[in-house]
Amino acid sequence: MNVLKIATAGSVDDGKSTLIGRLLYDTKSLTEDKLEAIKKSSEQRGYDYLDFSLATDGLVAEREQGITIDVAHIYFSTPTKSYIIADTPGHVEYTRNMVTGASTSQVAIILIDARKGVIEQTYRHFFINNLLRVKNIIVAVNKMDLVDYSEEVFNNIKKDFEALNAKSTYGEQIVSYIPVSALKGDNIVDKTDAMSWYNGDTILGHLEELEAQDVYDAGKVRFPVQTVIRPKTDEFHDFRGYAGKITGGSLKVGDAVTVLPSLTQSKIKEIFFFDTSYEEAPAGSSVNITLEGDINVTRGDMLVKTDELPKIEKQVTATVCWMDSKNLVPGTKYIVQHNTNRVLSKIDSINSVIATDYTGEQENKNKLSLNEIGEVSIKLSKPIYFDSYNDNKSNGAFILIDAQTNTTAGAGFIN
Amino acid sequence: METLINEIKPQKTTNASLQGLGNALENEAIYIFREVVAQFEKPVLLFSGGKDSITLVRLAQKAFWPAKIPFPLMHIDTGHNFPETIAFRDKLVKELGVELIVRNVQDSIDQGKVVEETGKYASRNMLQTTTLLDAIEEFKFDACIGGARRDEEKARAKERIFSVRDDFGQWDEKNQRPELFDMLNGTIEIGQNVRVFPISNWTELDVWSYIQKEDIEIPSIYFAHKRNIFLRDGLIWSAEDDVVFRAEDEVVEERWVRFRTVGDMSCTAAVLSKADSIDKVVEEIRDSKISERGARIDDKRSEAAMEKRKQQGYF
């Protein structure tokens, strides 16, 4: 079964949770007991409609305030595909959660309130999806029922968004526009009669046609070693396997590989998935690989094809999304986790804080605060082996870990 | 190396699937298991004998083959388990050759740390938390791997894959670490621990389909059998008078039932079913109009029942 990962983005009250609830309801993924619970809670709150957001806003604080604070993951499936939706908060103070949700998604649904049109938040939502190179964008113009299902309103919003799209730095992005009413169920799963002027797909219809390709599929083969498997039993006395997940392309038995950072050369001897050996394994496989010859490989090392070496450097410049309440300032030390490799690093300089509204404004205040995005130069104590994020998502991203609090303080996308 | 070759099954041609050998969810779970072993010193797999933890065991086998599973299994025994589950647990552990740790809620009661609930809805489910936290401290476990899934319940939908707990075992749901891409940050202070959920992204149907595809053995109570039951609040309770409170007017009858979820006997309701094989069970789940936790009496206590339990260190 193929899995398609979707992230939603929208401002407060744009109806994200309602849209998800509607998707679940109309695909019959909401079971009777869950529906009953929503009915009960809706009544208790004095609503005269079913508040589907109660299905996804799982925390007490969220239900109290009627907003989504943290990413929730919601699951549903059709006969052809399994869907995972990351329902992300729209508030500006939750930008970090939106980045988190978008980091694993192949599709983003950006909601726009038909009455309000493209607003500042829309700019940020689109900007983040540009930055993270999310390939498919669905612009869902919601609450069409409140603007009399007006074609003109929809077209104006589409025109505004197209102007925004012209500023995008990611040319391969595919943007689709769908007029909907999540509350009424128009164009979510079922086509509506209310907008005869619209001939396109419904939200689900569009999702069904997208290829469920893994986020980590593009680029060159990269194999970060997670752990070394040494059974030390009589039967497998000399077995020494390198466990990890293949990203990029596929690996074959006999492929000439280079171990990073040692630059030792070898060949792939065997590829195991559980107790079965394979001639070839495609991207996405969690395999166990043995190499020819007696060489030293440990966690944090990376196997690549010898003719496809990445950059190996002790200095990187990256776009960083800051996720910690403690500001990022030059001179401080953080641990860079790049795939399975961890390296102590020092922040060299913060070159700019980037405006997320496409004004192109760059401020230089030499620090990054929570939810800000900026360009940062980082010096590393040991080299990392990376590609630019644009070329290879999985090998071009890293996280910054605060060495004092251990928290994940930021996410970087290498230029 | 000759022995190795003999042990390995015949080579297969490459699977044309876009998402790798195995399926996407399986690959993700194996990846998570390997991160646990690489990032923590003393992991443990919390094993309840239910289908989710049995699935975890199979995934752990796949992650580390040809080595044995490199951590022990731990069962927090409420003393009110289905006997079939315990028999199954002991057999599985023997076959795998892994260490099993059992800690008993009864001991926590005898030590006066927790008090047995009384009344119609008395259950030992809540009491497990204390026994679990004590065991984590006793063995100094830094990572506890569990079979919770995000699709089970709305508070669980907010859970991270690596979920940090403070030294009181508490979940700070409003201040969770962001998890980006598949990079997992398991760095913690001494005294803290991480709850790890490798099958976070699986649905109930995914688990059942996997059990079917992999031909994994599960306890017999998951299949249709005749049982003495009684009805209360529209749910089917096991008539086990030693463990489950039953009022005089609650009449016992024998029916064909099976369990969709297996917890403590006092908080797990049965469903009427004739599904006596894995194929029939998968079919039944696919057509089901009631969610799995619809048969969990413990969730019905309040809208925030799960969130509250999790804050206190419940699994």
UniProtKB/TrEMBL annotation, chain A:
InterPro entries per UniProt: CysN_GTP-bd, CysN_II, CysN_NoDQ_III, G_TR_CS, GTP-eEF1A_C, P-loop_NTPase, Small_GTP-bd, SO4_adenylTrfase_lsu
Tagged with keyword Chloroplast: no
Pfam families: GTP-eEF1A_C, GTP_EFTU
GO biological process: sulfur compound metabolic process
EC number of this enzyme: 2.7.7.4
NCBIfam families hit by this protein: CysN (TIGR02034), small_GTP (TIGR00231)
Sequence intervals crossing the membrane: none
Keyword ATP-binding: yes
Organism: Cellulophaga fucicola
GO molecular function: ATP binding; GTP binding; GTPase activity; sulfate adenylyltransferase (ATP) activity
Tr-type G domain segment(s): 1-215
Name of the protein described by the UniProt record: sulfate adenylyltransferase
Keywords: ATP-binding, GTP-binding, Nucleotide-binding, Nucleotidyltransferase, Transferase
Enzyme class name: transferase
TrEMBL record, chain B:
Enzyme Commission code(s) on record: 2.7.7.4
Pfam families: PAPS_reduct
GO BP terms: sulfate assimilation
Principal EC category: transferase
Domain of life where this protein originates: Bacteria
NCBIfam families: CysD, PRK05253.1, PRK12563.1
The protein's name: Sulfate adenylyltransferase subunit 2
